[in-house]
Design goal:
The chain is α/β, with parallel strands linked by helices. Helix content is about 40%, strand content about 15%.
Length: about 300
Amino acid sequence: MKTAVLAGASGFIGSYFRQQLADAGWQVRTIGRTGDALWGDTGAMTALLENAELLINLTGKSVSCRYSPANKAEILRSRVETTAELGRAVAACANPPRDWFNASTGTIYRDARDHAQTEDDGEPGSGFSVDVARAWEAALDAAATPRTRKIPLRITIVMGPGGGVMAPFNILARCGLGGPMGDGGQKFSWIHVEDLFRAVMFLHEDPRITGSVNIGSPHVVDNRELMAGVRRAMDKPWGLPTPAWLLKPGAVLIRTETELVLKSRWVQPKKLQDAGFSWRYPVLDDALANIASNVVGSKKTGI
């Protein structure tokens, strides 16, 4: 039985990965605040990683929160320190994992409306989120693990049944504010959680791919198209537009930041496309319909 070590298995994405790996016949070991090994116990982590084939690190505080000094510090710490700690544990293994996939973010690229940002020509942006992404990837790069392939996954907005970071969009749509946000022209790069998992396993099976990899659908939409899709999936025939000035107090009320909805993320998954990866949900409407069709009792789980 192949063994995968999953760090950050308790969140929306981690829980999904854990179930999918188990269903595919993998033995899954976990690292976290609870699990088979705990953060801070490097010896236990090393023992857990010994002879494992695959390490997937999804650890990190959700960025769907207010950027208070305390939250910003924890967003950074929960990514950088855990990555560095995993690096020390992998380095101590006699037989380390073949692959280490470490979460990163497509937000590392600048606000882009002129052209897509690929792994080859993408331009880093500026600001807190970009600083976190750079520090996160630097911690992975600094890990001395020559026998382990390290790939930062520049993940776009993840959506799936009952989770993901779509909550701000859903709340506004339910309140009748499901129209364009800001000017509606900002790009929205996204990925269905099923395709996120499939992409990671695809990368694991293709040793030719190295370096950072953009993880998203090849069919990027703008905010106007996104909100129209959300309304269709939620059976909301109309939605008022939300100007940028109104989003700012609204973000405070739902405890998030306007960057999540106003930054133009145009992330193109060129490496996956060139390698022949096939998306199960490449089109937004199909992804939203799949999510909305998942029901618990008589209620939709949400997008």
